[in-house]
Specification:
mainly alpha, 12 helices, 0% strand, globular
Amino acid sequence: MSLLTITSLTFREAWRKKLFWVALGLGLAFLALFAVGFHYVLVDILAHPPGEARTGPGMKIFISQISGIFLILGLFAVNFLVVMMSALTSAGAIAGEISSHTIQTLVTKPIPRWHIVLGKWLGQSVMLVIYVIFMAGGLTLVVYFRTGYFPPNPAAGMSLLVLEGLIVLSIATFGGTFLPTMANGVLVFMLYGIAFAGSWVEQIGAALKSETAVQVGIIASLIMPSETMWRMASDLMQPKLIQEAAFPLISLYSKPSQAMIVYAVGYLLVFLMAAVYVFERRDL
């Protein structure tokens, strides 16, 4: 019962501080900007279609390609927003309460310390799931209502975006048990920077057939698998026409193994268990 209570309190605290409202409000602004931009870009492109797209079937294929490209580019931005929200909402969840000594009101009660850690993690996870559904689902609906295009594997793709956010959330929860809020935030963003840079090194290396660059990228993804989850989500939600055309910034030249999903789940669980271990033994 105490675990569910702390989960609920974590969610309500974010609600009370208007953190969740700000995230949703800015997300809505992003969706509106994307919808307007997508509409006018599509109008301009369709006004001067290439020769093969001027027939009925050709036009349909052309619209699907354009819609798929814009949707993936929009989800690329959502990917950043998911990481930022996960990091910013969780970096001070435990660290901030330790530094302000408000955590003592909980640890002095007959509540297991692991309930505190896991309850806060679960509360933030609920917010993360809602945010991903709102943002990724909103982009998908914007494109669908404008062109009738619907991406393949939307549920699997969104699930991988959630998994990416949970990885960041677990690292921030772990760091918050022994680092101050600012240092914890730096830790999370530096690890994400390694994952982001490593992902691009791997893709560029695969395109140029550089085995060394690919191996460097794989090592970076093992250090921090968050960006790999986005790459897999992007690949799942692309139609085959886009995958075969090998569009820059979108298509994968080096595809991660499905085993990376298992690794990512184990990775976040290790950090979550480590957070419980450190917090239970910390002198507060």
